[in-house]
Amino acid sequence: MVNQVPRGDGSWQSFKSDSSGASTSGGDSSKDSSRCSTPVLEADRSDRLRDKMRRRTESGDRWFSLEFFPPRTASGAVNLISRFDRMGSGGPLFIDITWHPAGDPGSDKETSSMMIASTAVNYCGLESVLHLTCCNQTTHKITGYLEKAKRLGLKNIMALRGDPVGADWEEEEEGFNYAIDLVKHIRSEFDDYFDICVAGYPTGHPEAGSYEEDLQHLKEKVDAGADFVITQLFFRADTFLKFLDDCRAIGITCPILPGIFPIQGYQSLRQLVKLSKLEVPEEITKVIEPIKDNDAAIRNYGIQQAVQMCRVLLDSGKVSGLHFYTLNREVATMEVLRQLGLWTEDPRRPLPWAVSAHPKRRVEDVRPIFWASRPKSYIYRTQDWDEFPNGRWGNSSSPAFGELNDYYLFYLKSKSTKDALLQMWGDELMNEQSVYEVFTCYITAQPNHRGHKVMCLPWNDEPLAPETNLLKEELEKVNRRGVLTINSQPNINGKPSTDPIVGWGPAGGYVFQKAYLEFFTSSENVTALLQVLKKYEPRVNYHIVNVHGQNRTNAHDMQPNAVTWGIFPGREIVQPTVVDPVSFMYWKDEAFALWIEQWGKLYEEESPSRMIIKYIHDNYFLVNLVDNDFPLDSCLWQVIDDMFELLDTTTFSFVYKFFI
Amino acid sequence: MVNQVPRGDGSWQSFKSDSSGASTSGGDSSKDSSRCSTPVLEADRSDRLRDKMRRRTESGDRWFSLEFFPPRTASGAVNLISRFDRMGSGGPLFIDITWHPAGDPGSDKETSSMMIASTAVNYCGLESVLHLTCCNQTTHKITGYLEKAKRLGLKNIMALRGDPVGADWEEEEEGFNYAIDLVKHIRSEFDDYFDICVAGYPTGHPEAGSYEEDLQHLKEKVDAGADFVITQLFFRADTFLKFLDDCRAIGITCPILPGIFPIQGYQSLRQLVKLSKLEVPEEITKVIEPIKDNDAAIRNYGIQQAVQMCRVLLDSGKVSGLHFYTLNREVATMEVLRQLGLWTEDPRRPLPWAVSAHPKRRVEDVRPIFWASRPKSYIYRTQDWDEFPNGRWGNSSSPAFGELNDYYLFYLKSKSTKDALLQMWGDELMNEQSVYEVFTCYITAQPNHRGHKVMCLPWNDEPLAPETNLLKEELEKVNRRGVLTINSQPNINGKPSTDPIVGWGPAGGYVFQKAYLEFFTSSENVTALLQVLKKYEPRVNYHIVNVHGQNRTNAHDMQPNAVTWGIFPGREIVQPTVVDPVSFMYWKDEAFALWIEQWGKLYEEESPSRMIIKYIHDNYFLVNLVDNDFPLDSCLWQVIDDMFELLDTTTFSFVYKFFI
């Protein structure tokens, strides 16, 4: 029996009871009831796309998605990935990548649709939809593409027929003739694994017998298993709203996303219209024709026209999500979204690092601090793990160091040219001090002695994070003296989770950090440092290693030390960042390799500059320090001061010799 | 190759590298490298006894262990278990329980050696050694005992021959004739599962041919697989030290613990001497005989004599642990240990709750807050779990409520008599206010109107915890008005882990708590409370349930809320206590049952007093509240104030009626 006693407010829950009055669990099992692992912060991280869409729609949220096409060149790919990072910050519900059969879209090339979608999911953390066209493809080939997509962590497919090649296209008895065949194939071969999107045509497909016939085709595609619809572009809000009503009228109940095309230029409009066999309404051509040579004016008009149309759609109450054809450009779409108030550049992050969208990684909730500036490298090096953070580190066959190659090299290589790097890092190094200067200039954001700003280092592809800026003065001082810092964080004792610089996680919480400092320094310095660190037990944890793997640490049983954590209303503790002595030994391979691969190799072999870098690579130590006493001012600067003081005393010369 | 570069300080560790210079993990796998679950705090919790002993000895620590015999009666068992709790607080490395074949020692009776040892391990968290004698036992029976011991979580056996029954004892060809047979049997049948202790005789076994022959027997027992030795009692330090040297000389290298017998009375000394066939040295009889009728004087002498002897043993540098024959008494042994400085009553706890010593539970690191005052009940109800806290709650066949029975009932029943309970809780209740008064008197530790102090409640077997005392004033106020509190904790914003009241865990850390309050209250109050709580979203998490299982909560996805956590040097976050909405539904069964089982049943059926308790049981709600904003003063008192204020307004009468 169920002890459900109805009440006025109607919201009491009830547990089933058996005759003895004893509770049984609400579900079949309470296995996960009091699990103590760090909890997932956002339902968004575990839901599939169609559920996210439903939840956002039900809660009255408005959202958008972005369509991109694959790049033609490798440098285009690098640019597109940067664009993903920038446009991802505005909060799209998903992005989608188009599929062009002529461009080898399913290959391993860095420019293929498959690899671009995979990068978006795995490295940029974007929920992604991969287009797939079936026309003229064998079942075998299509299944292969789908298997590969699944293997890469893609969960969503836009099922399309694609344009027949040549005019003599005919239906094949056994093949894929229409998108519906692909939908059916996906459902029969992959069950419910993929979320499937199909295309809708607000003015009817150009090849359809009639608008009504085309609507019926859409209904069949949905009935065959599609989860939502994205429409072809259109120029009038009414066109879409009528189409939407007609779809609902014949029983299409799934989400239908209007495809928005902000006019960005005269040529691109003409081309698109030609391809899609659409007609541009007179009210638009009337405006555009007179300004067709003025790109800025056309773009401004396009923005204004799109905003206006989107407002009508949203105000109808029937549309909660908008799909944008970006044409791989940022400005117009971002501006439209900003004007609509949909660009949600929320400075708050669910976790202090960017979460990957790969289904296996979505619940990942702790990472070593070492890869803080190289998250794509961490994701790459741990891509074969089934469970995070409990994977097994690869051995040397992993391409993380030595000869960086292929895909890995491609996505992790510096965005700057060799010339730019030489300008920043020096085309001729005189001695170790030349290297100290580079680090110091990077920290201070001041030009080097040749007048060039140092915008990146081999370990940091971006300028200093705002958080690191808090430590700027101290960092400058120590780098000048050869404590070459590559990673650090200040201590934080309970700042609100909404803090614009150090905050993360849901509102109403508090975030904490232990002070962290990681640097390369000479073996002479390390010998002094080890003396000094005895005074700081157990307050400071350290781990010191050279390129040969010789290392010293006072880590307790080689256990990780949590250095970033958050306390939130109604949740378990979240501890997303740790200093882990085991993974540090794998990070050190990468950290030392970057000296040679990214810096040393800029110079001729045997050149003095290269020898200096090699000397540092061979002889310096990589050091990490954690100050466990987070409520107090960090003592790590005092540790470094003490080290220099010890080095400056004559007494120490003796100690130093003794240690060598 | 191994890149081990020898250095002066000799303490650099090295990682193996292969030819490409890449690291492989120090061990075969780094599976556990960056695991994020709450870490084990003490190696003591995972080590087996022999390893703990070795570690303590190597580190120069001094330690002790305590021997008890099983009680004869059920009330003796209750007393002995309380003694375990008290003497356990002094920090024994282990306790051991003797085995008396005539007393049904392997049975399920609450007085059996087996069940007493099991209780010590499982409920008192004490590392325990179970004695086992083999003389006159079949292999089948012995194996059965060992299997049962293993099943109950016992890990250590003291293997003894035992006293032959009758004078006509003869060796049996196939049976167990000597302790060594039992040692061999354990090792052959249970491999390395058990740690095995054997007995040593500093003056030679009374039945041995010679002292030297007996030493050889001991060596054979150790060679057969014993891990350490405890000696028979002796009266002179020299006796033991000579024995120890002789053991070492013939190659017995394992720990040998001197058995210390503080003389506690004339009769017990005589009896023991007779049983063990020892002679009391003249210097002792000379002192004792004249004072043989003065118990206090003998005990004082015994303490002084034991302290003196122990000092000689410890000062020899050959002894690091002392084993005490307590005779189930506390005073003498505790006093000896105090004078030796070995009684380590460390107010700091590894976790805020007592850790069970069961091998499966040793790594348990999070519990729901609800059983804070009833940890033995929590352990009992979750005894079949294989993994903590991820077990499956039992259904009504679990004896947690309704008819409490057998073992469960025995160990959880109130220590007070029915009369004492009636004096405290009232032999005649007039109305609900009579119940409010009982709660209020418990909180204030003031006598009730009949002049009796209320020392316990059905949910709290002990007076208020020091921590709860911090909240006394507020608690009194609300209990007086029918907010019947049964569990609470103040908020703590980073107190040192060494704090005498709220501290726990290793030194150098910081502990935190969210304010917590749990109480029974009327449905009228709850209706007002729910109104009030709307103002406190999301700051306050609540869960409200009645005996029928109707419940309301704002817990996020039914996830646990961490309410106690600690940050320690070089470790991951520890979060030992959660408010878990799932287990709350199981706790509520127990919490409501206690009204009837422990309170209501004190009165005649149908009596007004019993009807009042039954009314509360049937109609009140159990409420828990968490204030998530731990850095601020708790708002929970304000919530209760607001509730009463709302109840006091006329406006609310309408709301109230509407809700009913």
Q: Descriptors for this entry?
A:
homodimer, 660 residues, alpha/beta, TIM Barrel, 8-stranded parallel beta barrel, 5-stranded mixed β-sheet, 23 helices, Fadh2_euk (chains A, B), EC 1.5.1.53 (chains A, B)
Describe this structure as you would to a colleague:
The structure is a homodimer of 660-residue chains. With 660 residues, chain A is α/β, with parallel strands linked by helices. Chain A folds into 2 domains: 61-164 and 173-340, TIM Barrel, CATH 3.20.20.220; 367-654, no CATH class. In chain A, α11 (295-315) runs parallel beside α12 and α16 (432-444) runs antiparallel to α18 (472-480). The longest helix of chain A has 21 residues, at 295-315. Chains A, B: This is Methylenetetrahydrofolate reductase (NADPH). Chains A, B: Residues 348-648 form the MTHFR SAM-binding regulatory domain. Chains A, B: Belongs to the methylenetetrahydrofolate reductase family. Chains A, B: Residues 1-53 are annotated as: Disordered.
